[in-house]
Design goal:
The chain is mostly helical. The chain has 16 helices and two strands. It is globular.
């Protein structure tokens, strides 16, 4: 994966180059802040890795890879508002550092700037790329809406949850890869295979993220550990715990879901004990690995193991992450 440090350097340089706008500063400074607080840069990296499967001049795709990253950060800015999240990547969220209205408006203009970036595409690629992006962006919003609706639903099935994370999280990974392949002139079959690879590993990554939300080292995670438990989010872990728990454990879990006043650490620790008793961490790992395997089968359709090695190794490194 010798190319990754170079790609990372290109991505960060392009982000710094994007000024987004000047006045009023209170509108544009939150965008620069959000883009500057780091992150794995997973999506733009996938775009460049997909592009490099077909062409050697990956630097030409960097501005469009950063457009994908900008869209991702727009969704995070608005998601943090909806989730009332205090931290993002270990830093204050935009609505906490500024205010709610500023975070909404900054997110809005951030999305507008994404379209500005895509307008630099060659004319023969613009329509197809924007059509794919618009489909993906709408699906991400659909996924977020399902996620919010789950909060008021009495129960959520495993199938409903997987569908939600496919839309909210995974389709953007699929689009990131599809865009790189499109820009490089790949065949429609290859673009589809890369999209399916991205979607399936995206589902796996989200399941892994659910697990990390409960079990990660707080010093490494960058977000509030146990946040999903505190908020009663209907994650895969909670769905399986409700399905697998019996007797006193099930009664205790339901009590924690209903109680309004509690000490956060006490609730997180108690619910994790119930998860452990029900074997939920192992079930989550197994489900995530099944989606990773499905994704790698799609990757096998587009070329030799030698050709796809950088992309496979990058995905495998993310699978093993602990933060």
């Amino acid at each position: 994966m010798a190319v990754l440090p170079t790609y990372q350097k290109w991505i960060e340089a392009e982000i710094k180059k994007q000024k987004f706008g000047k006045n009023p500063p209170s509108l544009y400074e939150p965008i620069r802040y959000m883009m500057g607080i780091g992150g794995k840069r997973l999506r733009p990296m996938l775009t460049l890795l997909a592009y490099s499967l077909y062409r050697d001049n990956a630097k030409e795709a960097v501005p469009f890879a950063v457009a994908v990253e900008s869209f991702h950060n727009f969704t995070l800015m608005h998601d943090d508002i909806m989730d009332n999240a205090p931290l993002r990547r270990g830093q204050q969220t935009v609505h906490e550092k500024w205010n709610l209205s500023t975070a909404i408006l900054s997110g809005d203009v951030m999305l507008v700037k994404v379209y500005d970036m895509f307008l630099q595409l060659p004319p023969h690629q613009l329509k197809e790329a924007l059509s794919a992006f618009n489909r993906c962006a709408a699906e991400v919003c659909e996924g977020q809406q399902w996620d919010m609706e789950f909060e008021s639903m009495h129960s959520v099935t495993e199938a409903q949850y997987i569908h939600m994370i496919r839309l909210k999280t995974a389709v953007l990974l699929g689009f990131s890869l599809e865009l790189g392949a499109l820009l490089a002139g790949a065949s429609e079959a290859d673009r589809k295979a890369l999209y399916e690879f991205g979607v399936n590993i995206g589902i796996g990554f989200q399941l892994k993220d659910d697990l990390l939300d409960a079990y990660a080292d707080p010093d490494k995670f960058g977000k509030q550990v146990g946040g999903d438990i505190i908020a009663n989010k209907k994650t895969f872990l909670l769905i399986k715990a409700l399905e697998k728990s019996k007797g006193a454990s099930l009664r205790e879990l339901k009590t924690w879901l209903e109680v309004k006043k509690f000490k956060k650490k006490e609730k997180v620790d108690a619910v994790k004990r119930i998860y452990d008793l029900a074997g939920v961490p192992a079930l989550t790992e197994k489900k995530a690995n099944a989606y990773f395997d499905k994704g790698f089968k799609s990757l096998e359709k587009i070329g030799s193991p030698e050709k796809t090695a950088p992309l496979r190794e990058f995905a495998e490194a993310l699978m093993a992450r602990q933060s």
